[in-house]
Design goal:
about 280 residues, alpha/beta, two-stranded antiparallel sheet
């Protein structure tokens, strides 16, 4: 029986508010319809994860394990720390994480090899990550709950997309969500990255820009045999260039309207279906 692990990364930054987010949710649902229509989906051999990102990633119930902090951060936080203006603050209680430090940056090492630090001066996306699951209702509910706000720290979203697929993280995830070994027979691992804008937020100065970090993480995924698809939605040229490089060969899609976006996600789902048959 062919096995498939897919992690969807969704940009929920402020520029996705309104119709764009509605279009994204509809397109993702249509892609899932194709995937879950496969005969092997009923056997549990298809598992899907969800990684929303904006100024950071909401680790949800996994926050403490990821950061080694006993309590989520709370208080007032600058909604746009990079604009050079006086702080425009909101009060929030967050379970968000940012990038890793030092030698553990860009890697798939589990948190025990280098903890995360809680994001500072950010808006935490209201929707938390969902690790791999074969429960369609849980996936649909998580996507339906997406809300757009904040900036675009895409490298953090890409990182958590990898962690959902990486067997190095098996001790981190619940048993039912643990990724299989890379060399498991008849297994395909797929990352589907999506953004509508240029990445613009990074935290750990020694790690390089958000763009540099994103490229290194994408390279790490591809080196492990993960098929990386990338979708941009009404995005500027810089974002298109970055995501073209992040994607596996021939796996980049640019959408300028809702119809394009829907076609892109459907095309990816069909290609994934063929990966399963071929494997």
């Amino acid at each position: 029986i062919n096995k498939l692990e897919v992690s969807f990364m969704f940009d929920v930054s402020g520029s996705m508010k309104g119709q764009k987010l509605a279009d994204l949710k509809a397109s993702a649902k249509n892609a899932l319809d194709i995937l879950f229509d496969l005969p092997s989906a009923a056997t549990g051999d298809l598992r899907v994860g969800v990684v929303p990102f904006a100024t950071s990633v909401n680790a949800g119930t996994y926050f403490q394990e990821a950061t080694n902090l006993s309590n989520p951060r709370s208080g007032k936080h600058d909604t746009n720390p990079n604009d050079g203006k006086s702080a425009d603050t909101v009060t929030t209680s967050a379970t968000c994480v940012t990038e890793r430090k030092g030698s553990h940056a860009y890697s798939e090492e589990p948190p025990s090899s280098g903890r995360y630090f809680g994001a500072e001066n950010d808006i935490c996306p209201s929707t938390a990550i969902l690790p791999l699951t074969n429960k369609r209702a849980d996936i649909d509910a998580r996507i339906a709950s997406l809300v757009a706000d904040g900036l675009t720290a895409g490298h953090i979203g890409i990182g958590w997309t990898w962690y959902e697929l990486s067997p190095e993280w098996n001790a981190f995830w619940p048993t039912a969500s643990r990724p299989m070994a890379y060399d498991t027979p008849a297994l395909s691992k797929v990352a589907i990255l999506m953004t509508d804008g240029e990445f613009n937020s990074a935290y750990e100065k020694g790690n390089g820009s958000t763009q540099d970090q994103a490229l290194k993480i994408c390279a790490g995924m591809k080196a492990q045999g993960i098929q990386v698809f990338a979708v941009v939605f009404q995005a500027p040229a810089a974002a298109k260039d970055l995501m073209t490089t992040c994607a596996s060969a021939g796996s980049f899609y640019a959408a300028e309207n809702a119809s394009d976006l829907d076609k892109a996600y459907k095309a990816i789902a069909v290609r994934i279906s063929r990966l399963r048959i071929a494997s």
